[in-house]
Specification:
heterodimer, A: mainly alpha, 12 helices, about 75% helix, B: alpha/beta, 2 domains, 8 helices, 9 strands, about 25% strand
Chain lengths: ~250, ~250
């Protein structure tokens, strides 16, 4: 029925998000940097002064390696979840396939967070870790993470049309995840390690540290678990979305 | 041959608008009473061929907008079958995709893409849209600085630029001042002459007589009459007058 150009629509929606966000901010891009820098400062203070952990060298960089992927995941999950409600007037009035809204929300978070990623990579280079050949893995693991969040976003945006408090469920999950993702700790005990690899957010953090701090490729077990979980999520998300989208009009 | 076909289509909504909270879903699980349904459309059947211009008339709440939403594919019917072949564009409200913080130009491109134009097509029709809408230098200003009339003019211009086989419009013909309205009518007439279909809702008998040769009359979700505009309007207007007297 709709014979448009998905790439063009999604890029326009991403552009809209970006421009609307930055036209209403006097400090613009600096806001995106402020959050990870403040968190990095606070966590560094706590885990070097109050609960010192001498086994972790260069704690600020270590913690930033956890915060940036975690931020990307939480922000894109929440914005994707509310995207159908936020764009409710368009969903109800224009016959564009509604999948484009959660997907565009994820990609606009990507753009929003490029400065944070640039900050992380810049710090890695500035502190003498240097660029190595394993950096080629970064787009792979981030790409898989994007696939995963798109899947979650499709599922939760559809659910949010029916149960409007889904947003708070997502926010609570994110709070729990802050502790379950190895952001400020390192050594996950052996018996939990394989379970941690199934959590795509934890997997992204572990893989980023392997690549950026240790200068080695992420382990194969982690890569295949991340791939499986991401594609299961996108399949499930698409399924749930397609099942529910016919009734969006009645409930928006 | 492109066509729109409704066969025995019904559409209902639940009468008490459910509150979309977790609590009300739980309550619904325990309360075992049948939900009251309200039928917006009951057993509607008709065909529209490409090249036919059809008006839909009826009182407020007769199901006109629901019918258009179904035709555009925004809503899906409870019963019956809707078949559509050909490119169809629906505008249930002018400028629904507009954002006040984006400039006129950005809004044009965003809306064109939502309506199904590719990047190449959108760039091709862009200048025609700007020229037709008479927005002028304001095109690079954010939309919140526009007057209501300017926004409607821009919305109409984008809609007409998509060039579909079926154009479905809901009450959008009251756009702008008199001279702009005349221009809109001219544009729609051109659209008709190129053998395309306009399907519209309007409360103005004059507009309908001028644009459409066929009319459907809906009343409380039922299709009361389907025929030439003059015939249907005579029945409809006669009935409305009766009702005001009573």
């Amino acid at each position: 029925m709709w014979h448009g150009d998905y790439v063009f629509v999604i890029s326009n929606l991403v552009m809209k998000d970006f421009k609307v966000r930055y036209r209403n901010m006097s400090l613009g891009v600096l806001w995106s940097l402020l959050n990870p820098l403040v968190m990095m400062g606070v966590l560094t203070f706590i885990f070097t002064q109050i609960f010192p952990n001498p086994s972790i060298k260069n704690f600020p960089l270590f913690v930033l390696c956890g915060l940036v992927p975690f931020n990307f995941f939480t922000i894109s999950w929440v914005t994707a979840t509310t995207s159908l409600i936020d764009n409710g007037t368009i969903v109800k009035r224009v016959s564009v396939p509604s999948q484009v809204f959660p997907i565009a929300a994820v990609f606009s978070t990507c753009i929003h967070l490029t400065v944070q990623i640039a900050l992380l990579l810049g710090l890695v280079i500035a502190l003498g870790k240097g660029v190595n050949v394993y950096w080629l893995w970064l787009p792979v693991v981030w790409g898989l993470e994007i696939v995963f969040v798109c899947g979650l976003g499709l599922m939760f945006s559809a659910l949010n049309v029916y149960v409007r408090d889904m947003r708070y469920v997502v926010e609570s999950c994110n709070m729990i995840l802050f502790w379950l993702v190895p952001i400020f700790y390192y050594s996950v005990p052996e018996r939990f390690y394989s379970i941690y690899q199934y959590n795509p957010v934890a997997a992204l953090v572990l893989a980023s540290r392997n690549i950026l701090l240790d200068g080695k490729a992420p382990p194969n077990t982690l890569l295949y678990k991340l791939t499986i979980v991401s594609f299961v999520a996108i399949a499930l998300g698409t399924g749930v979305f397609n099942k529910m989208k016919d009734r969006f009009y009645d409930h928006l | 041959m492109p066509f729109i076909r409704f066969s025995n289509v019904s559409k209902s909504f639940s009468r008490h608008k459910p509150r979309m909270l977790l609590r009300s879903h739980f309550e619904a699980l325990f309360e075992n009473r049948m939900k009251e349904r309200f039928y917006a459309l009951k057993n509607i059947s008709f065909n529209i061929q490409k090249g036919e211009n059809v008006a839909i008339v009826g009182a407020n709440g007769a199901g006109k907008s629901t019918l258009l939403s179904l035709a555009v594919g925004l809503a899906s019917p409870d019963q019956g079958d809707i078949r559509i072949s050909g490119r169809l564009v629906g505008l249930l409200e002018l400028g629904s995709g507009f954002h006040p913080d984006l400039t006129g130009k950005e809004n044009i491109l965003l809306n064109a893409s939502l309506l199904g134009l590719s990047r190449k097509e959108a760039n091709r029709v862009y200048h025609r849209i700007v020229e037709f809408s008479e927005i002028g230098d304001f095109i690079d200003e954010p939309l919140r600085t526009y007057s209501t009339g300017m926004i409607l003019r821009l919305g109409f211009s984008v809609a007409m630029s998509v060039d579909p086989e079926f154009l479905i419009v809901d009450e959008v013909l009251a756009v702008g001042d008199q001279s702009f309205q005349a221009k809109c009518f001219e544009r729609i007439a051109e659209f008709k002459h190129s053998g395309k279909s306009l399907i519209c809702v309007s409360h103005s008998g004059d507009v309908i007589r001028q644009l459409c040769e066929r009319a459907l009359w809906l009343d409380h979700g039922e299709l009361i009459a389907d025929g030439t505009t003059d015939h249907v309007l005579k029945m409809y207007e006669g009935r409305s007058v009766q009702r005001t007297r009573a």
